[in-house]
Amino acid sequence: MGTGDAATRAEKRARLAHPIETGALVGARWSPYGFDPRPLPAAELRSLLEAARWSPSSYNEQPWRLVAARREDGEPFERLLGCLVEFNQSWARHASALVLGVVVRRFAGRDADNPAAEHDLGLATAHLMLEATARGLSTHAMIGIDAGRARAAFAIPDGFDPLTAIAIGYAGTPGDQPDKLRDRDAAPRDRKPLAEFVFGGEWGRPAPCLED
Amino acid sequence: MGTGDAATRAEKRARLAHPIETGALVGARWSPYGFDPRPLPAAELRSLLEAARWSPSSYNEQPWRLVAARREDGEPFERLLGCLVEFNQSWARHASALVLGVVVRRFAGRDADNPAAEHDLGLATAHLMLEATARGLSTHAMIGIDAGRARAAFAIPDGFDPLTAIAIGYAGTPGDQPDKLRDRDAAPRDRKPLAEFVFGGEWGRPAPCLED
Asked: Do A43 and B212 touch (CB under 8 A)?
């Protein structure tokens, strides 16, 4: 376990086109498939959750609920693992903790859907991930869960919708890691250039601020 | 403009229940209604967009498109401002830049909706916001836009759905700021305790990791 981590991490640094101040977080963060199943101290997990807690949200609704289990919790960890689609179970079982991301579909104070609910879970998840990076931990978020199974497994009431899971732990290379996943973990990170997704006055045309 | 910023910023620090390493970002970030309409250098805006660019996304789809306009862009800035609901226009007009957040509803490579699209726009937006905080800039994201007006204003094709807007600039206190918004900007930030939203094996019961 853990061999080659340093090389992998160096190769996974974002190849920045523009300078960022958050390079140690945004530039260093990546989503491994390989985890080394070391115990994660509860205090570490609390700090990640605390960072998520201070995320902004529309009307400060905080439209998220999380189900968190560490490997040493035993049965709840296995139960949460069982809510992932099969492929995600295959690698996430090495994570030190799993978090289920659940959106609160309706506003607390009025009879209407909250159109920001999924978006705001994303905001909170990014906070959690960057706090993890700051602590030398790795995260891998998944949309690949079985929402029905999660609802049944944790008796999640109507109006609360399981949407994501987050694997949290220590990046590593499990001895039984399939070559395909090892290759993915070793591959450089890749993103579209800004000019392909930041437009200005005309849809599809790069924003003027990209060229000033 | 800008009087009282220092006091406000100090009061707005998150009152942490658990230590976080990202305190200078997550702990310092807040969403002002008051902005001082100073010009935002294009290079600063590019750095914010670059941080968003390196956000994770499901299948690395990067299911976001952004429309970005700075105040000095003139007409496109006014056009983007006009896509906000009226209340948001009233304060966001003082921002130095506006960004429209658009989700890509379908997967690029297959004929299916991307269930992570809105969530992943949230991830990218959090990156942008924290990069802004690192640079002494403020952001305020809104779900309160008129999506139909945005689609018409920027000829946004089917399959791309305007969801959010982000005001970016310098926190301040405009001379004409309504008392109600001034009070909101001066109020401490408030969040639910972890025990109210982080559950363990049983829905509604705090996770064991909160108490270890």
From this structure: yes
